[in-house]
């Protein structure tokens, strides 16, 4: 096996070069700068819920009103948080990621169209 890289894929586009390009790196940077902090925050929130459920059952079983407990509110909060994160990511992607991704796609389609 040779370690030499061919200049382009069969369609005429060198995807390694695209991946190393500044616009693609910027797209990855934007996506990661949003996703990683939110993922860490959600995991921390989830682990707090799990740890409180395991080690603070008296706190989690406190009734807030009727049969609704702190644990139930925290548990439902996990679902709410998931939906909020999803909606926030979609809005962020529409505003900050999609325009750059469309530019990259248009450039690649122009290159690929020119190669045929």
Describe the structure.
The protein is mostly helical and 116 residues long. The chain has helices at 15-19, 22-55, 57-60, 70-115; strands at residues 63-65, 68-69. The protein has a two-stranded antiparallel ribbon. A hairpin with a 2-residue loop joins strand 1 (63-65) and strand 2. It is elongated, with a radius of gyration of 23 Å. The relative contact order is 0.13.
Strand order of the largest sheet: 1-2
Instruction: Give helix % range.
Output: over 70%
Assembly state (oligomeric): single chain
Q: Compute the number of strand runs.
A: 2
Q: What would the average pLDDT be, to the nearest integer?
A: 89
Taken as a percent bin, the fraction of beta residues is under 5%
SSE-based structural type:
mainly alpha
Largest sheet: 2 strands, antiparallel
Order of helices and strands: HHHEEH
Q: How would you describe the shape? A: elongated
Could you tell me the radius of gyration in angstroms? Answer: 23 Å
Number of helices: 4
Low-confidence stretches: none
Distance between the termini: 29 Å
Highlighted features:
116 residues, mainly alpha
């Amino acid at each position: 096996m040779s370690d030499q890289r061919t200049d382009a894929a069969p369609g005429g586009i060198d995807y390694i070069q695209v991946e190393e390009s500044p616009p693609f790196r910027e797209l990855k940077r934007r996506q990661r700068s949003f996703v990683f902090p939110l993922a860490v925050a959600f995991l921390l929130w989830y682990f707090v819920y799990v740890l409180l459920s395991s080690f603070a059952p008296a706190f989690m079983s406190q009734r807030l009103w009727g049969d609704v407990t702190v644990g139930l509110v925290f548990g439902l909060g996990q679902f709410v948080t998931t939906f909020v994160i999803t909606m926030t990511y979609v809005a962020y992607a529409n505003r900050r990621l999609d325009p750059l991704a469309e530019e990259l796609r248009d450039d690649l389609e122009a290159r690929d169209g020119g190669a045929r």
